[in-house]
Amino acid sequence: MNQRPSLFSKWEKEIKAFFRHPIGVIGLAGVTFVLLVAIFAPVIAEPVGGYGIFEERLTGPSTSHAFGTDDMGRDLFSQVVWGTRASIKVAILSVLTATVIGVPIGLVSGYFQGLVDTVGMSLVEIFLTIPMLPLIIIVTAVSNATSINTVAVIIGLFSWPTIARITRSSTLQVSSMQYIEAARCLGIRTGPIIFKHILVNASTPVLINLTIVMATSIITESAISFLGLGDPTTFSWGKILHNAHASGAFASAWWFSLFPSIAIVWFVISFNFLSMGIRDALNPKITRA
Amino acid sequence: MTRYVLSRVLKGVITLLITITLTFLILRLLPSDPALMMLGEMFTADQRQALIERFGLDKPLLEQYFIYLGNLLQGDLGMSFYQRRPVMEIIQEKLPWTLLLMVTTEILTMVVGIPLGIYSGYKRGTVFDQIVNAVAIFGVSVFVPWLGFTLLYFFGFKLPIFPVGGAYDVGTEGFARILDIGAHMVLPVATLMVIYLANYVLYTRGSVIDVMEEDYIKTARSKGMSERRVLWKHASKNAMIPTVTMAGMMLGQVVGGAVLTETIYAFPGIGRMIYQAVGQQDYPVLQGAFIILALSVIVMNIITDIAIVYLDPRIKLE
Question: Can you give the residue ranges of every domain in chain B?
């Protein structure tokens, strides 16, 4: 036998528990669907951009335009389909950024405790108190961020507190365990203890919460685009809603705002459900039953 | 008690100072040099130089920082370069509307959300509880503009019950004016409530489930107290504490929701002002709006922290 089955068998109980949980499975299916749409976007839909057909502006859903057309006569179906790519990019990039900042802060806070912890967690609390959306708006506007990647990184820069807090509480638990003390007695340096031994064992709760951070990032990106900031060339779902609002067409053309909104809700609910499923599957109280 | 209040106020001051410092750094250190952008591009090189000197932009960063702090302390948030008048003046017109919207939402959400949470926690596992949960999760996942559009579409255009934008009609006075403002606030408040209700319901539900296991509830029951009295008098008070704490921490997010809601309903508050300032690249207004919103959240946070003492007398003893 090769290594693979043993890796899976380690998690067999949890995987089984996950698939017994209908909400988690629905979430997984929802996320998979979005990923597939993003991957096969060039096959499913025409490329977006350019000018629309003037005579076809604001036409409702039909066989030639499944989701109707916008105020410039551009096909909304292809905009929504290509929007999945923008959203996934934002989800991944922002979470990566937030993790790179949040995990080390959480690890150091939880391991050293004392003053370092007090300072670290006060910072987290302060960042969670400050109204984030206006701050992100300022940074996006001032830095003249015109690429979706920059916007994603900016969102990530302000999403680290949640991750830091979870990493910290998980680190607190792990670092009081005996094998960490043993590692210390063996004379292993602090760096490797924190970033190897503790990180590996403290990472599960962090991973579960990444899906929630992804969902929040998508909502933030949509909000930023809706307000007319960000990448002018990428059709993100928030951008389509911005066009619907700015052109005033949302009042008469229901399809203009409905389909991108469904996409956002779909994406966010799927990620929230997925994280609920994983959390319950990893909770021994529920798995044992 | 005095020490507790003082420590909260101190925390608030530190938070505000960090907010201000952050804003300063963002505006001075980002590559596009917004400080220079703030001067506008319509000046000649000489006029530009004169303005740079007048605003102290040629001084060392630390000195600039203290000038900036000093100006803020005097309530000077700079000049809007689109409207050509002090940012503070503009904010003074807009802030009351945003505060009205936020406080109304906050109070109504508590009044509806906490009892719903208490009851569904008490009836945990029943159909009622599951429906409440499902609706709550939907609420967390909904995108504000979509909800706004939907409510506007149905209750503003299709079935024109409520006004579709603004905060009041011109020409109403006295009591009619108050009613008019109320009517204009129905849709914006409803939008924000759907989004934030879930947190209140789920938090209260969770803590009711915990509280119901406590010894003092058993004592109350064994004394022969009616279930209704046990739940609504004894259990609910303790179950509310985590929810009120959470409410204070959520305020920053509610502000974000208010920015979007005001934009959709053309409600004349700070949120809509931010939307307009983004379009006009009016950085002094954006910066001032953020600082004032942060200040409002911090003040409301301190009020919440003090309100908790009345719910949880144990804090006073510490």
Answer: 2-73, 90-311
CATH code: domain B90-311 is: 1.10.3720.10
Render pLDDT for B62-96 as a digit per residue (tens, 0 to 9).
Answer: 888 888 888 888 888 888 877 888 999 999 999 99
Q: Could you name the CATH architecture of A77-283?
A: Orthogonal Bundle (1.10)
Closest CA to A177 of A120, A110, A116, A115: A110
State the residue for tokens 């991108």.
A260
Average pLDDT, chain B: 84
Of A219, A124, A230, the closest CA to residue A167 belongs to: A124
The answer to whether residue B18 neighbours chain A at the CB level (below 8 Å) is yes
In the block, residue with structure tokens 């008048």: B85
**What are the boundaries of each domain within chain A?**
77-283
Residue type, B22: L
Cβ–Cβ contact A241 with B under 8 A: yes
> Are B141 and A215 an interchain contact pair (Cβ–Cβ within 8 Å)?
yes
**CA of A7 to nearest chain B CA: how many angstroms apart?**
34
pLDDT for A93-150, tens place per residue? 999 999 999 999 999 999 998 899 999 998 898 888 889 999 998 888 888 777 889 9
Distance CA B72, CA A92 (A): 38
Residue B118 at interface with chain A, using a CB cutoff of 8 Å: no
B216 close contact with A: CB closer than 8 A: no
Per-residue model confidence as pLDDT tens digits over B186-204? 999 999 998 888 888 888 8
Tell me, what's the ipTM?
0.84
Q: Using CB atoms and an 8 Å cut-off, which of residues 260-279 of chain A contact chain B?
A: 261, 264-265, 268-269, 272
B275 inside 8 A of chain A by CB: yes
Q: Which residues of A touch B287 (CB under 8 A)?
A: 138
Maximum Cα interatomic distance, chain B, rounded to a whole number of Å: 86
Among candidate residues A269, A176, A131, A242, the one with its CA nearest the CA of residue B145? A242
